[in-house]
Design brief:
198 residues, mainly alpha, elongated
């Protein structure tokens, strides 16, 4: 359900200590994961989450309950993470989506060369490092869309509210994020099933 409980909304707006403590306890782990997935180092991730909760407390009276608290918190956090990284991120590269589709997918929309996960005997910690490094290379909005969908498993409507985009925009962001991750991981040594069969 995307609407917050009216009773909880009133308690948040009134800044009732018990309600505010409950919000922090419930959402702290999720926000820390999201901050790390947004590419912030551990110390900056903790700072960004703390700043998110401070902003939440300052603006609690504005919370109207039309969305869940977590949606509101995600929005605040992602804005802070984007500002933190704004001076560091490289400019987003222009990609020709038609070219990518033609080279990566068949007529039915399936991968022409499906990505293959690491072998069972692969060094899982190393693969995790590679994935983190590849996530780091994605532009902010693509990384945020990917993390919200694949890590936090949020639905389309909620992600669109958080990122302030349309479902079509979300589809494009996720497509480009997945393709970018695949190419990055392949460049680091993870090969597709097609390559392994040759």
């Amino acid at each position: 359900m995307s609407i917050e409980d009216p009773d909880m909304t009133q308690k948040i707006r009134a800044r009732e200590p018990g309600a505010l403590r409950s919000v922090v306890r419930e959402h702290l782990p999720m926000l820390l994961r999201a901050a790390r997935a947004a590419g912030l180092p551990p110390d900056r991730a903790e700072d960004a989450v703390q700043e998110t909760f401070l902003t939440f407390l300052r603006r609690a009276h504005e919370f109207d309950g039309r969305a869940q608290v977590r949606t509101w918190l995600y929005g605040i956090l992602l804005n802070k993470a984007a500002r933190e990284r704004a001076g560091v991120r490289r400019a987003e590269e222009t990609e020709e989506i038609d070219t990518i589709v033609e080279t990566r997918f068949n007529e039915s929309g399936r991968w022409s060369r499906p990505p293959r996960g690491p072998e069972a005997t692969a060094d899982a910690p190393r693969v995790r490092v590679w994935l983190d490094e590849c996530l780091e290379t994605l532009p902010d909005r693509r990384r945020s869309a990917f993390v919200l969908r694949e890590v936090e498993e949020l639905g389309t409507d909620e992600i669109c509210k958080i990122l302030e985009i349309t479902p079509n925009n979300l589809g494009v962001l996720l497509f480009r994020a997945r393709n970018g991750l695949r190419e990055c991981l392949e460049a680091k040594g993870l090969r597709s099933r097609h390559d392994a069969d040759v």
